[in-house]
Amino acid sequence: MRQILIGRRAEGGLWQSAFVLFDTHCHFDFDEFACGREAFLRRAGECGITKMLVPGVSPGCWERQARVVLECRLYGAFGIHPFWAHEVNVSDLDAVMQRLEGVLAEGSAVAVGECGLDRARVSRGAAPLEWQATILERQLRLAQSLRLPVILHCVRAHGRLLRILDELGPLPRGGVLHAYSGSAELIARYVAHGMYFGFGGAVTRPAFERAKESLSRVPADRLLLETDAPDQSPAWLDGPNQPAELARIAEVIAEQRGVPSDVLAAQTTENAARLFGL
User: Fold this and answer.
1) Host domain of residue 169
2) Is the pLDDT of residue 28 over 60?
3) Of 32-36, 208-212, 218-222, which range is least confident?
4) How far apart are CA 118 and CA 133, in angstroms?
5) What angle do CA 28, 213, 208 make, to 5 degrees?
6) Does residue 1 belong to any structural domain of this protein?
């Protein structure tokens, strides 16, 4: 099949896609977008990004996040990111989880998260891994009881995360390993737990060889595209990331996987719709 390239220039040097793309992980509620959300949305639309999912990170941000999701007509998930786990006290955990359950049960959320484990961040002020694991397990049980998929963040803790998933039992709707950083050898174990795998700007950078190897081994029906904007900027971008960059990221990923860009766009958009029940 002939490769159909996305690479047509749009405003500001952005690449314009001829295909529909779904940014499955974008922190569009963050301050970096506060002064120009309409412009960022317009540019994303011009570049073919027609759907975006905004994951939650902290109880203190859920109200603002819900407002942005509603006003911008995006999809939302709510959870406690391991970077923010230190904001939850032991004495407050039950109350926070009851609040999270209420937010998720309202019906607008399509997933639980972002939640997970980050061993690398512990030395830079994040909560101890044990506390991260405690909060993660509570969120996974909510995903089970509410029958929602889960958005997982995992850095240098895949062994611990897999043990938690093994002990927890089935997740009815599975989930996604956002910005997957694990080895290719772990993919099958995660697939057995119903997991998908998100990839974004990191695989455009020369140093991320393990991520590129994993990208090549993920089954086509388990692959998702994401920006993680404003973070994880692609190799060609010096400043903060934005959803519109997904068009060029998608082209790089299509090339790395050796598939036509239109096939990649259609497959990953279909995958996202299946996972999040859209």
Assistant:
1) 8-276
2) yes
3) 208-212
4) 10
5) 55
6) no
